[in-house]
Amino acid sequence: MKELDLLKKDWQKNDNSFEQVSEIEIYKMIHKKSSSIVKWILVISILEVSIWTLISLAFNTDDYFKKLKHDELIQYFEVLTIFNYGVILVFIYLFYKNYILISTTASTKQLMKDILKTRKTVQYYVWYNLGMIVFSLIIGFVIAFSYNPDVSILKDKIANDGKIMAITIGILILTIAVFFGIFWLFYRLLYGILLKRLYANYKELKKIDL
């Protein structure tokens, strides 16, 4: 927002020294910046999905389930994967739609509405991803305890000792919390900066609209 601050300072100075800048020009600058931010949100979301897809291809869960001799789990995870990609594609479509709306709008009030709408969409997208991460970890732990023969010794200890059960549950909760915190920070850095800039544009538009 440095360019906008300089523009406003010039506007407030004596117009004998500087040409007065109209609100329309300020609006155009904010409009351009907002459109660029939403475009980056769209691009980053597509890149993010692409990276996660490559990672999932590198670590094939089908082989893991076959090793456990529970091929029926493959189908369940395929359904979950299809559902997850379906939801993410809907979010990407909404990002694209928001980008088109912000790029083409010519009204200050409408631009403000579109900015708030975009921020909410990104926030929902982040919380959905964080929720799926927690859900996936829980499912992973349940499958490991239920089907992995390597965990059978630990299962016997848990069944016979309440203290070990409490420690195990504590470790699982701590693991989920750590992963949640890491990914929350990741999304905070990835999208938080863009959303902060977008909201700064909204506040500037609000000043103009008064």
Automatic annotation (TrEMBL):
Keywords: Membrane, Transmembrane, Transmembrane helix. The chain crosses the membrane at residues 37-59, 79-101, 122-144, 164-187. The keyword Membrane applies. This is Beta-carotene 15,15'-monooxygenase.
